[in-house]
Specification:
Helix 3 (82-91) runs parallel beside helix 4 and helix 7 (186-197) packs across helix 9 (306-325). The chain has two domains: 3-125, NAD(P)-binding Rossmann-like Domain (Rossmann fold); 133-279 and 310-330, Dihydrodipicolinate Reductase, domain 2, CATH 3.30.360. The strands form two sheets. A nine-stranded mixed sheet has the order 14-13-12-11-7-10-9-8-15. It contains nine helices and 15 strands. The two termini are 32 Å apart. The chain is globular. Helix 4 links the parallel strand 5 (95-98) and strand 6. The chain has 336 residues and is of the alpha/beta class. Bound molecules: nicotinamide-adenine-dinucleotide (NAD). Nicotinamide-adenine-dinucleotide is lined by residues 9-14, 36-37, 76-79, 81, 99-100, 126, 128, 167, 170, 184. Nicotinamide-adenine-dinucleotide (NAD) is lined by residues 9-14, 36-37, 76-79, 81, 99-100, 126, 128, 167, 170, 184.
């Protein structure tokens, strides 16, 4: 059986990545849409054969509870709205996939997790790289200590953005509770640092900077941080809408594991101490959604549960705290 998915928030990512990917999935299919933009409805209905009864807006969305065609609601709105819509979907008895980063605060994430638990549905995050072969190769090597333990990690996700009008406006504003590139791009670095370290950080030091002060009036353009792990080992990170760079590098006992570029929808390159990696291109979004649907169908634990999303938000909030305070932020105990 294929699980029915409703996409909620028909912006860039839903339109150009998720809906096309849902034409390739084996365990899920696009059966519904939820949108605040009625003008988008006819095109979507026609293109993906979505019946009238499976089209919702943000006012009547809760009626989705009675719709047997829809098993999963995939929330693809701006990050600051993931919590509200994920909680409403859970209350309607639907499984939830929330895009990354999960939500502005740890408390928001906790409310999402609790809503899913209370309504007996699953909550997963759209962390597509957990189905990407180059990243998977690195994760496997770090889990098995194939090249020994790690000594240092460096993760950078930076891309110079120049268009901040229209839909992109929410990305550099404070209104929705997020912090620019640190959330949008930095969450990939935090993910990479943690799946490389296979451990939780003890503390973080951080700073932020802004070159284009006329554009970045509400959130910093660039964040840099250093996570410290047991034994004093460090993982450097950088996320920026002003600079450029796309890598995850891990120094191990036996040499470097290097992925660059690493975070995109394709085009990954990489090497281990054994030499270059060479994997075929995959549709990450299709594999991710299939993996998430299969976890639901089989009643198995997700690779990318809400708890992982919350863990990453904890790290991001720690980075913000450390940068603001100008001194290390101590994480204390991690729950996940
Ligand atoms: P976008 O701005 O193109 O789309 C957001 C959609 O939400 C729009 O259709 C917009 O109309 C709708 N929306 C609903 N309420 C809104 C409000 N109050 N303000 C503004 N828009 C509102 O953004 P996007 O690039 O599609 O990103 C959406 C989410 O997906 C974000 O959380 C983003 O981080 C995530 N994303 C993930 C990936 C990935 O690789 N996993 C890639 C891109 C985006």
């Amino acid at each position: 059986r294929k699980l029915g998915i409703a996409l909620l928030g028909l912006g860039d990512y839903a339109t150009h990545q998720l809906a096309p990917a849902l034409q390739e999935t084996k365990h899920a299919r696009l059966t519904g849409i939820v949108t605040g933009s009625p003008e988008k409805v006819p095109t979507w209905q026609e293109k993906y054969a979505i019946p009238d009864g499976n089209v919702y807006n943000y006012d009547n969305f809760d009626e989705i509870a009675d719709n047997k065609d829809i098993d999963i609601v995939y929330v693809v709105t701006p990050t600051g709205l993931h919590d509200e819509f994920s909680i409403r979907a859970a209350k309607a008895g639907k499984h939830v996939i929330s895009e990354k980063p999960m939500a502005p605060t740890v408390e928001d994430c906790t409310r999402m997790i609790e809503a899913a638990e209370k309504n007996d549905v699953t909550l997963q995050i759209g962390y597509r790289l957990h189905w990407e072969p180059y990243n998977l190769r690195l994760i496997e090597a770090m889990k098995t200590k194939e090249f020994g333990d790690w000594k240092s990690i460096s993760a950078t996700n930076a891309s110079r953005m120049t268009n901040f009008t229209g839909l992109n406006k929410w990305r550099i504003g404070k209104e929705l509770g997020i912090q620019g590139a640190l959330y949008d791009l930095g969450v990939y670095c935090v993910q990479g640092q943690l799946y490389s370290a296979q451990a939780r950080p003890l503390r973080v030091t951080a700073n932020h900077s802004t070159e284009r002060k006329d554009i970045f009036t509400e959130v910093p353009e660039t964040y840099e941080w250093e996570l410290e792990f047991e034994g004093g080992r460090k993982a450097a990170g950088m996320a920026s809408y002003g600079k450029s760079g796309n890598w995850l590098k891990v120094e191990t006992d036996q040499g470097m594991i290097e992925l660059s570029p690493v975070y995109g929808y394709g085009g990954q390159k990489g090497s281990t101490p054994e030499g270059p990696m060479d994997f075929p291109h995959v549709n990450q979004q299709a594999l991710q959604i299939d993996g998430q649907a299969l976890a639901i169908l089989k009643g198995e634990a997700s690779k990318v549960p809400g708890e992982m999303g919350r863990r990453d938000i904890r790290v991001i909030r720690g980075i913000m705290e450390a940068a603001d305070a100008g001194k290390p932020y101590e994480f204390g105990k991690f729950l996940y």
